[in-house]
Fold this sequence. Notes:
Distance between the termini: 76 Å
Structural class: alpha+beta
Number of helices: 10
Order of helices and strands: HHHHEEHHEEEHHHEEEH
Number of strands: 8
Largest sheet: 6 strands, antiparallel
Radius of gyration: 21 Å
Strand order of the largest sheet: 5-4-3-8-7-6
Mean pLDDT: 85
Shape: globular
Strand content: 15-25%
Amino acid sequence: MTAQSKQRGRKAAADQAASEAPAPKGALPSAIDPGSLRGMDRSFAVLELLAQAPARVVDVTRALDLPWATVHRTIVQLEKAQFLRRDPETSRYQIGPRLWHIGSAYLSNHRVLTAATPYLAKLSELDGIALQVVERIGWQSVVIYSHQHVDEDITKAHYGYHFPLHCASKGHVLLANEPPAFIDAYLARPLERLTPETVTDPVAVRAILEEVRASDFALTVGDVQLFAASMAAPIRDATGQTVAALCFVFRKNLLKSDARRETLREQIGHAAHSISLDLGWRHGR
C-alpha cells in the first residue's frame, strides 16, 4: 500500500469516526422544519443551518433527519462551489466566500441602510454605544450594520451576529410588529434561554410584546449577555410595515444614570422616526 493510499484510508476512518460521534448538545439552533427536503430545498436548508452555527456532516444529518450520504453529497457540492468552507482541524463546515459575495450585494443595495446612512453617521459619535441596524430573517434577528468605537468592543454586537427573536430589545421590536399568526407560531416553539435573565415563558413574552407595540420602544438588560443591555426602536416603510430595528447595545452600568438613559431613548426614537419618514412612512397611514 502506498503512502497516499494509507493517507486516504486514515482520512476515511477519521471521517467515519466523526460521523459516528455524538453531536454537541445545542450546537445547532435551527428553525428549519426538515419536512420533505429535495434538491434545491435541501441545499437551502443546509446553508441556513450552517449559517447559524458551523457543524460537521453528522450534525447536519441529525438536525435535518436525512441520510448521511445525502447530506455529505450536498455539502461536498456546496463546498466545491465555494458556498461552504471546511475547517480541516474540526471537520466543521461554515459559510464560504462565494455566499458572502452574494450577501454583500444584498447589503450594498439595501434601501433601509441607504436611508439610514446620514443618521447612523451622527449616532456613531455616541460614547459607549454599539450601534446596530437589525432585520428579521426567519426566527432570528440579524445584525446587518454595526458600529462601535475600537476601545469599547462589546462582544457579540458586531455585524452578522444573530439571536432568537425573543431575546434582546431588537428581537422584541421585530417580533412585536409581526402578524399575530407569526407570533403564535414562534411562541409555540421551545424558547432558548441565553442567560438566567432571558424571558422564555410565552405569556410573559406576549406581555412584553404588547408594551413594545404600545411604546414603539424596547429595553432589555442581561438577557443576551449578563453585562450588557440594549434598547431598540422600529424602522417602518411606506406601507407601515416594520422592516428593521435601530438598536443601541451598551454595558448595563450605563443605565445607572436616568438622564443618560432618557437621552438615549430620545435619540434612538428620533433617529428611527426620521429614517422611517425617509422611507415614505407617515403616521396613521
